[in-house]
Amino acid sequence: MGQEFGQDLAMLLGRQGTRRHLLGAGALGAGSLLAATLAGRGAARAAVPEVVLCNWGGDAVPAFTKAFVEPYEKRTGGRMVIDGSGPTNGKMRAMVEANAVRWDLCDSGVTGLAELAGRNLLAPIDYGVVSKADVVPEFAYECGVCNYMFSSVMAWDKQRVPGTPTLADFFDLKKFPGKRMIRKNSQAMLEMALLADGVPREKLYPLDVKRGLDKLASIRDALLTWDTGAQSQSLLRDGEAVMGWLWHTRAFLLGRETQGRIAWNFQDGVLQPGLWVVPRGNPAGRQAMVAIASMQEPPGQVSLLESMSNGPANPKASALVPPELREADPGSPANAAAQVKISADWYREHYGDSYRQFIDMISA
């Protein structure tokens, strides 16, 4: 099903050399994690259970360490380690079904929730410990809670598309000739197609999948698709597409490296959550919820925005965001107001079917 946002961001940070520094005691690579787990848990070394957080590796490890691990360890006296091997849905499912869970927290998303929660593979979030007041209300789910925010947005080549195009312009091949680019996934692409077709934001869900697919099919011969963030960046930078829908992190980088030739904005974008999920049967038990509550603190979330361009999940963090970062913060009040918030509840019920229909449409 292609690359997820967290995977792409880890690759992007590593390629750009962002915030490179030695990992401290709070962060472990995949190889050393097993030894630490056996030594730490096997010896029952502390009263506070060790928490193992799995993310997508690369420079996301030191970024998470500074933003989340260090404050948690100071606050609780416990220990948190990071496994950067990548919490794919397949790995989480295999661990839970084999009663061999090694992770307590995973950096997941809407797709993870859709594929795993319905199979009873995720523990419910304990909102007696985790504060619903410290997260955007729409992104607090039964088995997942927002850890950061990102967006799917439209970008365009200013040399071939003058002015500021709308989503409707994306489908007007006479007004703006040239190829269009979308993600090879139904998530967010259906929403943007329906918005372009005139569906009001407040009436977007439940998604009219057929209407969205028909809208995309109307320009199928002009569509290029991307599986990875790097592909989306290349297609626009190299001029293969004149407009495209992609993650805001890649759009931001494109604007910078093309000196403004590639423009973008948050207007009619899709605001999406990264999600903390807890595999059912996690070794640290309730301590995973304590860790999530700690990571809701605004300073750590602003640190993640500074290092990774991920928008804070806690609305209270907005006051701490430096002025120079607000324009690119997908969850800032002004940027959030220009977008629609994705519904993980809808995708939990319909992701499999909508994805298959989407692939059938673009492959026809």
Automatic annotation (TrEMBL):
Entry-linked InterPro entries: SBP, TAT_signal
Signal peptide: none
CDD domains in UniProt: PBP2_polyamine_RpCGA009
Pfam family, one: SBP_bac_8
Full protein name: ABC transporter substrate-binding protein
Organism of origin: Roseomonas gilardii
Phylogenetic lineage: Bacteria, Pseudomonadati, Pseudomonadota, Alphaproteobacteria, Acetobacterales
